[in-house]
Amino acid sequence: MRFGLFGRDKREAAGADASARIKQQVRELLGLPESAVIVVNEILCADPACPGTETVILVMKPGEKTRAFKVQMGLAELTPEALAAALSEAS
Questions:
Q1: Which range of residues forms the domain containing residue 53?
Q2: Largest Cα–Cα distance of the chain, in whole Å?
Q3: Which of 41, 70, 71, 89 gives the lowest tally of CB atoms within 10 Å of its CB?
Q4: Is the CB of residue 71 less than 8 Å from the CB of residue 83?
Protein backbone atom coordinates (compact mmCIF):
# COMPACT_ATOMS: atom_id res chain seq x y z
CA MET A 1 0.00 0.00 0.00
CA ARG A 2 1.34 3.44 -0.87
CA PHE A 3 0.85 6.61 1.06
CA GLY A 4 1.56 10.30 0.67
CA LEU A 5 2.31 11.89 -2.65
CA PHE A 6 2.52 8.66 -4.62
CA GLY A 7 -1.18 7.79 -4.53
CA ARG A 8 -2.50 4.55 -6.00
CA ASP A 9 -0.49 2.40 -8.36
CA LYS A 10 -1.86 1.57 -11.83
CA ARG A 11 -3.12 -1.90 -10.84
CA GLU A 12 -5.05 -0.47 -7.89
CA ALA A 13 -6.57 2.22 -10.10
CA ALA A 14 -7.58 -0.32 -12.76
CA GLY A 15 -9.18 -2.52 -10.09
CA ALA A 16 -11.11 0.42 -8.65
CA ASP A 17 -12.31 1.41 -12.13
CA ALA A 18 -13.41 -2.15 -12.91
CA SER A 19 -15.15 -2.42 -9.53
CA ALA A 20 -17.05 0.84 -10.11
CA ARG A 21 -18.06 -0.31 -13.61
CA ILE A 22 -19.34 -3.65 -12.30
CA LYS A 23 -21.25 -1.97 -9.46
CA GLN A 24 -23.04 0.27 -11.95
CA GLN A 25 -23.86 -2.68 -14.22
CA VAL A 26 -25.21 -4.70 -11.28
CA ARG A 27 -27.37 -1.76 -10.20
CA GLU A 28 -28.80 -1.45 -13.72
CA LEU A 29 -29.25 -5.19 -14.37
CA LEU A 30 -31.04 -5.80 -11.06
CA GLY A 31 -32.90 -2.46 -11.04
CA LEU A 32 -31.51 -1.58 -7.61
CA PRO A 33 -32.32 1.66 -5.80
CA GLU A 34 -29.56 4.01 -4.67
CA SER A 35 -30.11 2.80 -1.09
CA ALA A 36 -28.77 -0.64 -2.05
CA VAL A 37 -25.10 -1.22 -1.28
CA ILE A 38 -23.04 -3.22 -3.75
CA VAL A 39 -19.64 -4.64 -2.82
CA VAL A 40 -17.34 -6.14 -5.45
CA ASN A 41 -14.21 -8.13 -4.55
CA GLU A 42 -11.80 -10.22 -6.54
CA ILE A 43 -10.45 -13.17 -4.58
CA LEU A 44 -7.82 -15.79 -5.28
CA CYS A 45 -8.51 -19.18 -3.78
CA ALA A 46 -5.37 -21.16 -2.90
CA ASP A 47 -7.30 -24.44 -2.61
CA PRO A 48 -6.56 -26.69 -5.62
CA ALA A 49 -10.29 -27.48 -5.87
CA CYS A 50 -11.09 -23.80 -6.45
CA PRO A 51 -11.28 -22.29 -9.93
CA GLY A 52 -8.54 -19.73 -9.10
CA THR A 53 -9.58 -16.10 -9.35
CA GLU A 54 -13.23 -15.24 -8.94
CA THR A 55 -15.28 -12.10 -8.50
CA VAL A 56 -17.70 -12.01 -5.58
CA ILE A 57 -20.53 -9.47 -5.61
CA LEU A 58 -22.62 -8.73 -2.53
CA VAL A 59 -25.92 -6.87 -2.82
CA MET A 60 -27.31 -5.41 0.39
CA LYS A 61 -30.75 -3.81 0.39
CA PRO A 62 -32.14 -2.32 3.59
CA GLY A 63 -34.46 -4.77 5.34
CA GLU A 64 -33.50 -7.70 3.10
CA LYS A 65 -31.07 -10.57 3.35
CA THR A 66 -27.69 -10.00 1.65
CA ARG A 67 -27.41 -11.70 -1.73
CA ALA A 68 -24.08 -13.03 -2.99
CA PHE A 69 -23.14 -13.67 -6.62
CA LYS A 70 -19.93 -15.37 -7.78
CA VAL A 71 -18.37 -15.21 -11.22
CA GLN A 72 -15.50 -17.57 -12.05
CA MET A 73 -13.24 -14.88 -13.53
CA GLY A 74 -11.29 -11.86 -12.37
CA LEU A 75 -12.49 -8.26 -12.43
CA ALA A 76 -10.50 -7.39 -15.56
CA GLU A 77 -11.96 -10.29 -17.55
CA LEU A 78 -15.57 -9.88 -16.41
CA THR A 79 -17.70 -8.96 -19.41
CA PRO A 80 -21.20 -7.48 -19.24
CA GLU A 81 -22.54 -10.71 -20.77
CA ALA A 82 -20.85 -12.93 -18.15
CA LEU A 83 -22.11 -10.65 -15.39
CA ALA A 84 -25.67 -10.72 -16.71
CA ALA A 85 -25.53 -14.53 -16.96
CA ALA A 86 -24.24 -14.86 -13.38
CA LEU A 87 -26.92 -12.56 -12.01
CA SER A 88 -29.73 -14.31 -13.89
CA GLU A 89 -28.55 -17.81 -12.89
CA ALA A 90 -28.46 -16.88 -9.21
CA SER A 91 -31.83 -15.11 -9.15
A1: 4-90
A2: 44
A3: 89
A4: yes
What phi and psi, each to the nearest 5 degrees, are found at residue 23? -60, -45
Pick from 70, 77, 38, 66: which is nearest to 54 by CA?
70
The reported pTM is 0.79
Pairing mode, if any, of strands 37-44 and 53-60?
A: antiparallel
Domain count, the chain: 1
Give the phi and the psi of residue 64 in degrees, each rounded to 5. Answer: -125, 160
Domain containing residue 61: CATH number: 3.30.160
* Mean pLDDT of all residues in 76-84: 93
Residues 76/14, Cβ–Cβ less than 8 Å: yes
